């Protein structure tokens, strides 16, 4: 009897255990079935939206391989915008395209577009990747926005989007490093304005007295533009003195306020008139610059100081700035102040030393002047390189051949042409930024070279014409006249 009871108990136990295991297994596999986990788990699928290009799909395939085991689906898409949007989770800015024209083309300076895709489909607009932009192309605006001034407009912004329920856990670790890219910003682009001849003298001394001694008067219409650059340069040809008059190239001491108003950072001293007012005035003037936080190049209180290149190191860009007086006089010797004289045995090694450091090299040259001034009409003869004595083209190209990246003529009182040559760019003459030469149309104009540097590379040089009249207040030239004038200069490039 006891045996039968024991057998019955064991039977019930095993039946119960079996039922428990069956129910447990049912629950276990049922949960897996409904949650799609375990043996019923379906791996996540990568969906490529039709907005992606084939190149983008090939790049993505490096990260989303066939062996990759995702828990959740991911959908990858891309879009183009004309404005940089606020990026949401899973979105990355992966490329920027910008519109460019030929170096010598100035008629087309803006393109209008309602949508980014419409602009991309426009056969008349050349769009390049931002990384391809350099100073041998002319960047133009989109909807009147210039990319290097705006950064969040003026280009076509390519945004890639990754959508997944497990973006943070699964997708971000895969793509964040690959698709988080650095692009230029206002904080990382070095802006550098190079201007032409400044000679705050002669008739400007008279005008200064007539306006009550306020030297900021002359900069009133240009100061906001020039002071907006990280670095602003001019080639000042006259020294400060108490003996400035309407007939000499000497500056009333109050003219320092004109230079301060434009935010001047670098004073070039290659001009041939800096010692017109005497050696002591030239020395005192250099000290005035230095006391006001300005740097000098191409001249100085003595030959040793004048010889030293100016090295600029800002925002990840290193520039060696060299400046010489090649022909017009006023050179420094020994302890005498004046301009840095051009010597072939000096310029070559200085350029080579700078290139060994990895610096971008700018060379300014005070050359012979073109003085075919016309009193009442436009005389384009001075537009040309070689319109003055000597072989200007040969010399400036030779300096590029020595390794310079940009060569600029800073003696011309009238703007001259420009050209791409070899591995560099040449601007043969910038004209007058500030002077009293109001009698000839050519001498009232100048070119401002607006350089934009990013990580040591010159992305672009925008030529911005200026003009002054009898009031001697320099201002930006209006758009229509600027286009006409720049095309005129471009038409006679070597």
Give the topology.
Elements lengths: L1 H34 L10 E3 L5 H7 L13 E10 L7 E12 L7 E2 L4 H5 L5 E4 L7 E3 L1 E2 L4 H4 L2 E12 L2 H13 L9 E10 L4 H8 L12 H4 L4 E6 L19 H6 L4 E3 L10 H13 L3 E3 L1 E2 L2 H5 L2 E5 L2 E9 L12 E2 L4 H13 L3 E7 L25 H10 L4 E4 L8 E4 L2 E4 L4 E3 L10 E10 L2 E11 L7 E2 L2 H12 L4
Parallel strand pairs: 1-2, 4-7, 9-10, 9-21, 10-11, 11-12, 15-17, 17-18, 18-20
Antiparallel strand pairs: 2-8, 3-5, 3-6, 3-8, 9-22, 13-16, 14-15, 19-20, 22-23, 23-24
In short:
The chain is α/β, with parallel strands linked by helices. It folds into two domains: 46-179, no CATH class; 189-490, Purple Acid Phosphatase, chain A, domain 2 (4-Layer Sandwich). It contains 13 helices and 24 strands.
Question: What does it look like?
Answer:
It is a single chain. The chain has 494 residues and is of the alpha/beta class. The chain has two domains: 46-179, no CATH class; 189-490, Purple Acid Phosphatase, chain A, domain 2 (4-Layer Sandwich). Helix content is 27%, strand content 27%. The protein has 13 helices and 24 strands. Strands 9, 10, 11, 12, 21, 22, 23 and 24 form an eight-stranded mixed β-sheet that branches. Strands 1, 2, 3, 5, 6 and 8 form a six-stranded mixed β-sheet that branches. Strand 11, helix 9 and strand 12 form a beta-alpha-beta unit. The longest helix has 34 residues, at 2-35.
